[in-house]
Amino acid sequence: MKPNRFSSISALLEYHAALRRAAHLSEDERSALAEIDQLLALLTPDERASLDDTAVGGAAARRAERARRKLARELAARGILAS
Fold first, then answer.
1. For position 2, what pLDDT does the model report?
2. 8 A C-beta contact, residue 42 and residue 74
3. Most CB contacts within 10 A, which of 42, 47, 52, 78?
């Protein structure tokens, strides 16, 4: 299956969250979830955790922004993030 292209990191993360919340997934959706999980594995566990942090400011927000930038660079290099 060819990886989806996403317009932004936020779009990818929202899609990932929706797939994780879904009660029943099609085969294509399970495949997409596995692919996104592999992409998120490019981040350290702390970086992945920071993406879920809802802090508005301070150190937590800076960590989340750094993780998003790192993920954006990796996805752009793989042609998954639209430029």
1. 52
2. yes
3. 47
